[in-house]
Specification:
This protein is mainly beta and 117 residues long. Helix content is 0%, strand content 54%. The strands form two sheets. Strands 2, 4, 5, 6, 9, 10 and 11 form a seven-stranded mixed beta sheet that branches.
Length: 117
Amino acid sequence: QVQLVASGGGLVQAGGSLRLSCSASGRTFSGYTMAWFRKAPGKERDLVGTISSSDGSTYYANSVKGRFTISRGNAQDTVYLQMNNLKPEDTAVYFCRLNGGARYDYWGQGTQVTVSS
C-alpha cells in the first residue's frame, strides 16, 4: 500500500521559516514529479512548486519564488519544502503529490501552515 505522508506544518510569525517534509513509501518509484500544492480557506488549490526525480529540476509559482525551496532528501522518495520569509498569505493546508504521469498519482494528507501577522 502506497503512503504519502506530509509533515512539518505549524504556526509561525510572519518573516519566520518552516520546513515541510513529504515521504513516500510502499513501492519503488522512478521517473516522477513531486509537487507541493496549497489550499487556503475559500480559495482554489494552487500549485506551489515541483521537483523532478530524474534531474532535480524545480519549478516555483511566482508567489513563492525566491522564498521557498524544494529539495530531495538523502532518503529515497523524500522531498522537502523549505519556506522562508513566510507571509500571512502563505497560510494554507499544504499537500504533496507524487505523479508518475499515466502510471500513478498519489496525494498526501495535507499539513496546516499558519502564519500570524
